[in-house]
Amino acid sequence: MTGLIRFERPVVVQVSRRSSERIVFDVNDAAAILLRDLHHETDKRRIAMDTCLQVLRGKTHPPAARRAFVAAALEARILRSD
């Protein structure tokens, strides 16, 4: 499993008040947001990053990464729609 690993349903986030909403369709998008936009090191962020990596390595499936990403986005208060 390489390349785009799509979520069954997209996740909508807004990483700052000045930015527009972003629609996250896949594990690559989620991982990029976790790395570039969420700056606080939390357990939920770390778990989400690890889960995305596991999906990209073919060791788990996209729904696990989606759940972890949603939890991290909710904690960071950037989740707009699940």
TrEMBL record:
Gene3D superfamilies: 6.10.250.730. InterPro entries: DUF982. It comes from the Bacteria. This is DUF982 domain-containing protein. It comes from Mesorhizobium helmanticense. The lineage of its organism: Bacteria, Pseudomonadati, Pseudomonadota, Alphaproteobacteria, Hyphomicrobiales.
